[in-house]
Amino acid sequence: MPTRKQISHLKKRSKEGAANEKFHSILEEKLQKITARNQQLSPLLRLPAELRNKIYSLVLGGCNIPDDLPLTRPHFLALLATCRQTNTETRTLPFTLNTVLLHEGNDLGKLVRYPNRISQNMTTLELRWQLESFSRSDGFTRSEYPP
């Protein structure tokens, strides 16, 4: 049999849960209104999806991730933060339209840590390694090293 303290705690949690559910319901309703307004007022979102996708490709494509981005395109992902609809339409494009570039063995760990939704959308992955110099006096022949 639950104690009074446990019953009180459960009642409190129940009230908090109901308030939390109501808050999320109100928030979702407001977000849907904002999305509808954005679709009506935004020149970009009023364009047909095919044309928006072409624009997204021009804005988000043609890079090596992560090498080029910090210096050449510092605001590369800003488009994804403009609104929920553009985020939904573009969130996987940086990995679909670009080459994901990894250096050395340490970077392979990054690949494993990418969430599935990202790694599933990668279309080009480039791994770069630099071999240390060697000489025939190492005891290895040149044919033992990959080209």
Overview of the molecule:
With 147 residues, the protein is mainly alpha-helical. The protein folds into two domains: 1-41; 48-132, no CATH class. Helices cover 54% and strands 8% of the residues. The protein is built from eight helices and three strands. The protein has helices at 4-41, 43-46, 49-60, 69-72, 84-90, 93-96, 108-113, 116-119; strands at 64-65, 99-103, 124-128. The longest helix is centred in the first third of the chain and has 38 residues, at 4-41. It is flat and about 70 Å long. The mean pLDDT is 77.
In short:
With about 150 residues, the protein is mainly alpha-helical. The protein has eight helices and three strands, in the order H-H-H-E-H-H-H-E-H-H-E. It has helices spanning about 5-40, 45, 50-60, 70, 85-90, 95, 110-115, 115-120; strands at about 65, 100-105, 125-130.
Going across the major beta sheet, what is the strand order?
1-2-3
Could you say how many structural domains there are in total? 2
Mean pLDDT across every amino acid position? 77
Shape: flat
Helix content: 40-55%
**Unreliable stretches:** none
Order of helices and strands: HHHEHHHEHHE
Q: Describe the biggest sheet? A: 3 strands, parallel
Strand count = 3
Gyration radius, rounded: 25 Å
> Span from first to last CA?
74 Å
Percent of residues in β-strands: 5-15%
Question: Structural class of the helices, strands and pairings?
Answer: mainly alpha
Helix run count: 8
